[in-house]
Every structure is written in structure tokens, then in C-alpha cells.
Specification:
The protein has no helices and 10 strands. By secondary structure, it is mostly beta strands. It has one domain. A hairpin with a 4-residue loop joins strand 7 and strand 8.
Length: 98
């Protein structure tokens, strides 16, 4: 995959089908899909994640486990600054909120 800035290639990288760069850019099948406004790091495996993001919005959410697999989850917005994510199994990983 080539990452470009204008017409200039600034990086070439072979990435797995799902890859998350250090700054929150999510690459899925070699297409940049999102840049997170808030990243929640869930260090302990849990089926329910409570997230206080303070974005004053109802962001989209992408959940990725520690192996880089994207997980489907039920998202409940508590209010414009908090949400709850529910997965079928306990996992640890990151949630990227846009």
C-alpha cells in the first residue's frame, strides 16, 4: 500500500487486511477508512465496554481486538459524551471513535 500526500508517495507499507497505524488511522483492505477522534484502550478482556469519550457527539465506533480483527458490537449512546459497547464474547483491544 502506498500512502500519498498529494501526488507524492510518503510511505510504502505491506499491511494485513486490517491495520491500525499509531495515530489512529485505520486501514482496511488497503483503504484508509477512518482517523479516530478518540481512542479507547481496553486492557482487560470484557464483553461490555463503558467509554467516556467527551466528544459531545454520537460518534461512529470501530472495535479492533489485539490481533487486529474488527468486531461487531451493539452500541448504546448513554449521552453525547458516553457510550456502551457490547460484544458477544469478552475481548481486549481498542475502540476508535470518529
Amino acid at each position: 500500500m502506498s500512502i500519498r500526500q498529494g501526488n507524492t508517495v510518503i510511505a510504502n507499507k505491506t499491511v494485513p487486511s486490517v491495520y491500525t497505524a499509531g495515530d489512529g488511522i485505520i486501514v482496511n483492505n488497503n483503504v484508509i477508512t477512518a482517523k479516530a477522534k478518540y481512542i479507547h484502550d481496553q486492557g482487560v478482556a470484557a464483553a461490555t465496554w463503558e467509554i467516556q469519550h467527551d466528544l459531545n457527539d454520537f460518534p461512529s465506533v470501530t472495535v479492533v481486538d489485539t490481533a487486529g480483527t474488527i468486531f461487531d458490537c451493539k452500541i448504546t449512546y448513554i449521552d453525547s459524551n458516553n457510550c456502551r459497547l457490547e460484544m458477544n464474547v469478552p475481548i481486549k483491544g481498542k475502540a476508535y471513535l470518529n
